[in-house]
Design brief:
Blueprint lengths: L2 E8 L10 E4 L4 E5 L6 H13 L15 H4 L3 E12 L3 E14 L2 E6 L3 E6 L2 E6 L5 H9 L3 H8 L13 H11 L2 H111 L8 H77 L11 H77 L4 H28 L1 H10 L8 H50 L8 H65 L10 H39 L12 H17 L3 H19 L1 H54 L1 H30 L6 H11 L2 H129 L2 H74 L3 H51 L2 H55 L7 E11 L2 E12 L2 E4 L6 H19 L5 E5 L7 H18 L6 E6 L2 H7 L7 E7 L5 E7 L5
Parallel strand pairs: 3-13, 3-14, 12-13
Antiparallel strand pairs: 1-2, 1-4, 4-5, 5-6, 5-7, 7-8, 9-10, 10-11, 14-15
Helix pairs in contact: 4-23, 6-20, 6-21, 6-22, 7-14, 7-19, 7-20, 8-19, 9-11, 9-19, 10-19, 11-17, 11-19, 12-16, 13-14, 13-15, 22-23, 24-25
Length: 1308
């Protein structure tokens, strides 16, 4: 159980940075007294900073540290030390340091290293803030949470009313005190842990299923592997048996083949001889058939005759060979001549085609000149045209084209210059408009900033509850109270009641006889005196209220008259004010509705403007798309040109002309191809040349002509022309395809002008509507200011009305008391009773009455003096506060007025900008219209001249092309080439005719020698065939004898029998081999399957059973863990709820007891903190509210209780929380606990604190720290029962705070 011992402060707020101030804390009570601003609250701030490390509210930027300017330094070091004790004789010293540096216009605050020094059992340990979290360590050693330190024990004065804060802030405070977040996080962590375990369980279950499947598959794989091993072993045994049988069959087949081979030599020899016999027999028959006649001479005679024929035939052969050489020479010469003729004929066709083309080009040039002259209105070229006229026309059209180009350049330059001038003017006007608009925007922004500042200052002004009337009242009350206090003090001194009381008490024993009767009469007299005193009090209150009402009238009379529109009566001012306020609110709402209507119109216009802009954007995109499509198509025609959309018709016309020309060229090519086709037809059908009408003598001449015709036809093929025609037609198709885009482009350009005009109109409409909206904004702003003026006077009106009601009520009470006194006029006064006592000798009664009277008067006068002194002190504080608030109010009013003046200036700037904009807008519109008109006219002129230029350029280009073709034909020597080619053809035809005659004569001589050679060959052949026949007959006889001898041996039958047996054994071997192959294939398949199974077992299923066992164990343990976490989470949640309920019951019990013993009013029976549970996100949460109980009815205190009730309830709740949550640290500090409490509740609070201290003083670590300026409150607490000294905080001559220890007897 910890308790704090001593605090050292240096360089904090008003405490000097050169000298530390120390304060010790007593048990059970520590009193800190001092006037406002002396630095009392700084002690609480330092305690809080030392224990929690938290700086006070609103202390950013070095406000917590002593200002360096006050000590003339650039750097100030602040230090707070706190010494506290914990059980087991351990002492801790917490040190925290700060540094504030000033550099020109900037301040920088830095937290220095803090330390925590512990001293226990002679061992000193120092811990730095760099090594550990000092906040956590100090909180743990003190035995209380940081939230309790912050909100309960060392609660700052500015935050002392946190129990009355809004629900969200209250919930946050209580959650921190209960450390709900820590337990909530624990529960959430458990839930997350359970969720994670659940996710892990799901994964483990899935893994368990997979592992079980793997285990089952592994068992199947193992069983299948054993089965395959058995099957493979069976197949191996079968293969071995079949291999033995196959080897036996192969051995038998081999033996049969060896036996058959011994007979095969004989059979083959027989077959060979039989074959030779058949061949020789056939040769014998053929020789016999080739003989013309069978000769009977001997073989020797036939051989000699055959040798003579060879010599004569050799002579004929040599001569024929010579003739063949000559004939070949003739034939080569003829082929060369015919080849030359064919080439000349082909050349003749080309020359004729060129001539025809030349004639067509001449005609085309004449037609083109006439058409161009007619198109461009050039006179004198309608009739026959020779080369001179054509050249003249070409020079004229060239000059005309050059003039058009110069004219186009001139027009473009003029248009550009004019456009530049107009654009410069528009740019200048646009710049003026931009400047005016920018000035207007800046002014509006400045107005908005001023309005925001006014609204903020108006809110601050509304928070100021003191006005000049209230200050005047406080001044009056202060003067009156000072007089009353001085008068009461003088009366007490002058009365000298102590001496008189001693004298009367000396006679008291002698005057007891008549005490009863005179006592009763004295009671009546005393009551009458009380009524008189009450009458005086009421009269004084009436006078005070009347004076206050007069002050309010004089202070606010003119302004209220201006607000209500004339004279006003305090009795009806509240109703008139409410009526006027209702009218102002209604006017403000009506102006707001008008502004909203204009705003809706503006939004509609802006939506329309946005739609127009979107359409314009789409139209511009379509224009660009159409233009790009047309330009892209034109680029395909001529990639080097920079075409425009307007060039499309010209290009289409040019391509159509090119296509027409290509079709004419293809027609000419067709005629040439038809001529050569006719030549080929004559060659094939009539076997003669179409040109020379000569027949072909051999196939080689015909084939050469066919090849020549084929090459010529290929040369005149239409492929190139057709390709060019197809390309031109494709380009023409592309251009025609983009013709709709060209038309769309033209249409969209026309639409763009109208759309731009509509856009400008809508923009102007938007501008005018925006100006109307700004005017309505000003109207609404004025109406709002008027309404705010009314609302700012609501407190004053309420004060006037309430003061008037109090005056009426006081007058009624005065009248009532006066009437009661008049009815009681028969009761004798104290003086009369004394005279009667003197007369009747009842001296005892009189003296006793005097003693009682003197005692009562003394006590009453003392109480009056004390009460007036306390009231004077409070009134001085109120007056000081009122002065500060009025100064702040004056600053707010001056600032608001300055902002309003600025708004007026900015409005004038806006009006001037509007006038300038209104004047410049027509100028801009006019300049744009002029520019657009000039632009359109210039474009029309440019387009017209450009079209004329393009037409002339196209004509010149076409004329150049045709003239170039004509000149090219003449340069090549076309006519002379045609004539020389005709002469060469005639010479070649004569040469061919001569060579042909020589070849025919040579052929006749050679044929005659061949006939003679043929007849000699027949005789020679007959002799030779006879010799051959005789030799073949002898060979046939020899072979017949050999075949007959071999057939007699009958080896063929034995061979066939052995071969059949060998084939049978071979079939058996093949069958066994096939069976072995099938078994080997099956065995190999099973081996592969076994290898796969073994590999699968090794890689996948070898440890499947072990994995399944481990996974199953994990599943079961995870299930158990999830159940345990669920049970633990539920138990923790229930424990938290039980702890929360127990603590809330304890806090409410303590708070109820303290309230009932402290609060002196009768409107609230007790207070309590109501916590209402709710489930959010699957966890329990609590909402808190402070309630008051009235006749068993609970109501929220927030918004229903007075300022004093708030203060008292907050103190009681903090006391209850400290007692409930501060068991380990019995410490609580109360900073100015009497704020806003009346005297009865101050006294009751003092007595309650006295009771608390008395009840808990036996607790060794109980420490109550009370900071106050109210010494009367301390007297009510009877502090002398608990402490002998107190601490007084004051300012020295340097205005630095000092802490001094004084005796309690000086204030009690």
């Amino acid at each position: 159980m910890s308790k704090i011992d001593k605090l050292s402060i240096m360089g904090v707020r008003s405490f000097s940075s050169q000298e530390s101030q120390n304060i010790s804390f007593f048990t059970p009570l520590t009193l800190i007294v001092g006037y406002n601003g002396s630095g009392k609250t700084t002690i609480i701030e330092c305690l809080k900073y030392a224990t929690t490390g938290e700086l006070p509210p609103n202390s950013k930027g070095g406000a917590f540290i002593h200002d360096p300017k006050l000590c003339g330094a650039k750097e100030v070091l602040a230090q707070v030390k706190l010494r506290y004790h914990v059980p087991s004789n351990t002492q801790y010293v917490a040190t925290r340091s700060l540094q504030l540096s000033v550099k020109k216009s900037t301040r920088s605050q830095r937290t220095l290293e803090g330390t925590l020094l512990s001293n226990g059992d002679g061992e000193r340990v120092s811990i730095s803030s760099k090594e550990a979290n000092l906040n956590k360590l100090i909180s743990e050693t003190l035995g209380v949470s940081p939230a309790v330190l912050d909100a309960v024990i060392f609660c700052h004065q500015e935050e002392s009313l946190w129990p009355m804060s809004e629900p969200a802030a209250l919930k946050k405070r209580f959650d921190e005190i209960f450390e709900a977040m820590k337990y909530t996080k624990a529960i959430e962590n458990l839930k997350l842990l359970r969720k994670g375990q659940g996710e892990m369980l799901a994964k483990l279950k899935a893994k368990e299923v997979d592992d079980k499947r793997d285990k089952d598959r592994g068992a199947e794989c193992e069983a299948r592997s054993l089965q395959l091993e058995e099957e493979i072993e069976d197949l191996r045994n079968q293969a071995k048996e079949l291999e033995v049988q196959m080897n036996e069959a192969a051995q038998m087949a081999r033996e049969r083949h060896e036996s058959a081979n011994s007979y095969l030599l004989i059979v083959n020899n027989l077959q060979l001889k039989a074959g030779e016999l058949r061949v020789h027999t056939t040769n014998l028959e053929e020789s016999k058939s080739r003989m013309d006649e069978e000769l009977s001479e001997s073989d020797e005679w036939l051989r000699d005759t055959h040798k003579q024929f060879e010599t004569r035939i050799a002579g004929y052969g040599r001569e024929i060979d010579e003739n063949k050489g000559k004939y070949k020479q003739y034939k080569d010469d003829l082929d060369g001549s015919r080849q030359q003729l064919s080439e000349k004929l082909a050349e003749q066709g080309r020359h004729q085609s060129d001539k025809a083309q030349y004639e067509r080009q001449l005609q085309s040039r004449v037609e083109l000149v006439q058409q161009t002259a007619q198109l461009h209105s050039i006179r004198g070229f309608d009739g026959e045209l020779d080369d001179r006229k054509v050249q003249t026309f070409y020079e004229r059209i060239q000059k005309l084209l050059l003039d058009k180009r110069h004219e186009l350049d001139r027009i473009q330059a003029e248009n550009a210059s004019e456009m530049d001038n107009q654009t410069a003017g528009i740019t200048e006007l646009e710049g003026q408009k931009s400047r005016f608009t920018q000035n207007r925007v800046f002014a509006k922004q400045r107005i908005a900033a001023c309005e925001k500042t006014i609204a903020a200052r108006q809110r601050d002004l509304n928070t100021v509850e003191i006005d000049e009337g209230a200050k005047a009242i406080l001044d009056s009350e202060s003067r009156d109270l000072e007089q009353r206090f001085q008068q009461a003090s003088d009366d007490l001194k002058e009365a000298d009641l102590d001496r008189k009381l001693q004298q009367e008490e000396a006679h008291l024993l002698q005057l007891e006889g008549e005490s009863d009767r005179l006592s009763r009469e004295l009671v009546e007299s005393t009551k009458l005196l009380s009524d008189r005193a009450q009458l005086e009090v009421r009269k004084e209150e009436l006078t005070e209220k009347s004076r206050r009402l007069t002050t309010l009238k004089s202070t606010w009379g003119d302004k209220l008259s201006a607000l209500v529109g004339g004279a006003w009566d305090p009795a009806t001012i509240e109703r008139e004010f409410q009526t006027g306020q209702h009218d102002k609110v209604q006017a403000f709402e009506e102006a707001s509705r008008d502004r909203d209507e204009i705003l809706q119109q503006l939004k509609s216009i802006q939506a329309n403007l946005a739609s127009i802009r979107e359409k314009s954007r789409k139209r511009d995109a379509d224009i660009i798309r159409c233009k790009n499509a047309v330009v892209r198509a034109l680029k395909n025609v001529d990639s080097d040109a920079e075409p425009g959309v307007e060039d499309l018709p010209v290009e289409i016309e040019r391509l159509e002309s090119n296509i027409f020309t290509l079709k004419n060229d293809m027609s000419l090519s067709t005629e040439m191809s038809r001529y050569y086709a006719t030549c080929r037809k004559s060659m094939n059908e009539k076997n003669k040349c179409e040109l020379c009408e000569r027949s072909f003598t051999n196939a080689s001449e015909k084939s050469r002509l066919a090849a020549k015709i084929k090459s010529v036809l290929e040369e005149f093929a239409k492929g190139e022309l057709e390709t060019e025609l197809a390309e031109n037609e494709q380009l023409l198709g592309q251009l025609r395809a983009v013709r709709p885009e060209s038309e769309t482009y033209t249409r969209l350009l026309a639409e763009k002008k109208e759309a731009d005009k509509e856009h400008r109109e809508v923009q102007n409409k938007e501008t005018s509507t925006l100006r109307r909206l700004e005017v309505m904004d000003d109207v609404v702003r004025v109406k709002q200011e008027e309404r705010q003026d009314f609302e700012s006077m609501s407190k004053t009106i309420l004060a006037i009305s309430q003061t008037h009601k109090d005056i009426v009520e006081a007058e009624a009470q005065v009248d009532r008391i006066m009437s009661q006194q008049q009815s009681s006029s028969t009761i004798r006064s104290t003086q009369e009773i004394t005279e009667l006592q003197n007369e009747c000798g009842e001296r005892l009664k009189t003296v006793k009455d005097k003693v009682a009277k003197l005692s009562n008067d003394r006590q009453r006068m003392r109480d009056t003096v004390n009460a007036l002194g306390l009231e004077r002190s409070e009134l001085k504080n109120k007056l000081s506060d009122a002065v500060r608030q009025l100064e702040r109010k004056k600053e707010y009013q001056d600032l608001i007025q300055a902002q309003k003046n600025d708004i007026i200036t900015q409005k004038e700037i806006i009006q001037e900008a509007d006038r300038d904009l209104e004047s410049v807008e027509p100028q801009i519109s006019k300049a744009r219209a002029i520019r657009d008109d000039i632009l359109q006219k210039g474009r029309d002129k440019e387009k017209k001249v450009a079209n004329e230029r393009d037409g002339l350029a196209s004509s010149v280009s076409e004329l150049k092309r045709i003239d170039g073709d004509i000149q090219d034909y003449l340069n090549r020597g076309g006519p002379s080439n045609l004539k020389s080619n005709e002469q060469a053809i005639q010479a070649l035809e004569k040469t061919i005719q001569r060579i042909d005659e020589d070849m025919n004569a040579l052929a006749a001589r050679t044929n005659k020698m061949k006939e003679e050679m043929l007849s000699s060959d027949a005789k020679k052949k007959n002799i030779m065939e006879n010799l051959t026949y005789r030799k073949a007959a002898r060979d046939v006889d020899i072979l017949k004898q050999a075949v007959a001898e071999l057939e007699s041996r009958r080896a063929h039958e034995d061979y066939e029998r052995l071969e059949a047996e060998a084939k049978q054994f071979e079939a058996q071997r093949h069958l066994k081999n096939a069976e072995i192959g099938a078994i080997i294939g099956a065995s190999k398949s099973k081996d592969e399957e076994l290898a796969i199974k073994v590999k699968e077992w090794e890689t996948q299923y070898k440890s499947a059973a072990q994995r399944y066992r481990e996974t199953h164990i994990k599943v079961e343990t995870t299930k158990a863990a999830i159940e345990d976490i669920g049970r633990y989470s539920t138990a923790l949640d229930n424990a938290i709820m039980q702890y929360h309920g127990m603590k809330m019951e304890e806090v409410n019990r303590i708070a109820g007891e303290l309230w009932q013993s402290t609060y002196q009013g009768t409107d609230i029976d007790t207070i309590l903190i109501r916590s209402e549970g709710e489930a959010t996100g699957g966890r329990n949460s609590y909402n808190y509210r402070v309630c008051m109980v009235k006749r068993d009815t609970e109501m929220d205190m927030r918004g229903r209780c007075s300022a004093g009730q708030k203060v008292l309830a907050s103190i009681i709740i903090r006391l209850a929380l400290a007692e409930s949550f501060g068991v380990g640290c019995g410490l609580i500090a109360l900073d100015e606990p009497t704020t806003n409490l009346d005297s009865d509740n101050i006294k009751a609070l003092a007595e309650s604190l006295h009771s608390i201290i008395k009840a808990r003083r036996s607790q060794k670590n109980f420490q109550l720290i009370v900071i106050t300026h109210d010494e009367e409150f301390l007297r009510h607490m009877r502090c002398s029962d608990f402490c002998d000294d107190f601490w007084r905080v004051s300012r020295d001559e340097k205005q630095n705070s000092r802490i001094e220890r004084e005796s309690i007897a000086t204030i009690v």
